[in-house]
Amino acid sequence: MAQEIIATVGAFDGIHLGHRALLTQLRDLAAELDLAPVVFTFSPHPAEVLRPELAPEHLAPLSQNVELLRVYGAERVEILAFTPELAARSAEQFMLELRECHGLRALLVGYDHQFGRGANLTYEDYEAIGRSLGITLYRGTSLHIDNAPVSSSRIRQLLRMGKIREANALLGYAYRLSGQVVGGMRIGRTMGYPTANIQPDDPRQLVPADGVYAVRVRIADRMHTGMLYIGKRPTLDGVSRTIEVNIFDLSADLYAQRLELHLESYVRNDCKFPSLEALQEQIARDEQTVRAYFA
Q1: Can you give the CATH number for the domain in which 104 is found?
Q2: Are residues 124 and 209 in the same domain?
Q3: DSSP class of residue 53?
């Protein structure tokens, strides 16, 4: 018979320091109880099914979330398809299914997490259901930084404001955007700053505030430094928002390759310049700023 499990359940987007604290608690309880630590997460995000008009942008693609869940303590990650049928199940039905199908014997509930039809139960309600099913409940502790809980929604707000360092402090790593290099206008090349235009892997991932950022860029197994531009290129009367990166000291055809951008610092906001010459002069200053940051 497969080893019985202790699990935690949630959307787990971004795998920030609050998630990592919960995963540490899960791992420690698993060792104490001699159970396998398992995470149950969902695809799509529950809000995309229940309230699609209010569904949050993703902090990371599902593949990155699963990878980090394993790195920080989950022996196994189970991805449950979130459907209207799953949403209609009561907490008792859901817990019973986890017990019967996955060997659930203990459940760690995040400090603010609710599940089951209506999602309006208290921790004490879940505890009572657990007792009736022979499942022991544990309450997750919250992690506070700067007198506020670490949460995915707090990180999203910081990213929308361009506060990348503050967001990274709550994530515990540099925010990432990954995607394939696609064709662009090639105007940067004429100014001495060729850029790779990125089409994100996850079209629902949050793209931070417009502006210029200092970034590290992973290409295959190598890391490079560079400067990232996010915006509509107002000097060129652009309409669509672009994500384009100038990679320092690299001369290569990157078309169709996959890049992973690690955003480390916000350099300046986006603005319209009176001429291409003025834009080129500012880009040169941006390069100096970013190179100094990485020096």
Answers
A1: 3.40.50.620
A2: no
A3: G
Alpha helix ranges (H) inside the chain: 17-33, 46-50, 62-71, 84-87, 91-102, 123-133, 152-160, 164-171, 187-190, 276-294
pLDDT tens for the chain, residues 1 to 295: 578 999 999 999 999 999 999 999 999 999 999 999 999 999 999 999 999 999 999 999 999 999 999 999 999 999 999 999 999 999 999 999 999 999 999 999 998 888 988 778 999 999 999 999 999 999 999 999 999 999 999 999 999 999 999 999 999 999 999 999 998 777 777 788 999 999 999 999 999 999 999 999 999 999 999 999 999 999 887 789 999 999 999 988 898 999 999 999 999 999 999 999 999 999 999 999 999 999 9
136 and 205 both lie in a single domain: no
Query: Which of 100, 133, 149 is a domain's end point?
Result: 149
Does this model's pTM top 0.90? yes
Domain that holds residue 46: 5-149
Q: Are residues 95 and 196 in the same domain?
A: no
If asked whether residues 10 and 140 sit together in one domain, one would say yes
Q: 133 and 95 in contact (C-beta within 8 Å)? A: yes
Domain count, the chain: 2
Statement to judge: residues 253 and 189 lie in one domain: yes
The separation between the first and the last C-alpha atoms of the chain, rounded to the nearest angstrom, is: 55
Assign 3-state DSSP to the chain and report helix, strand, coil percentages, each to 5.
35, 30, 35
- What is the maximum span of the chain, computed from C-alpha positions, in angstroms? 73
**CATH code for the domain in which residue 268 is found:** 2.40.30.30
Element (H, E) at 258: strand 258-268
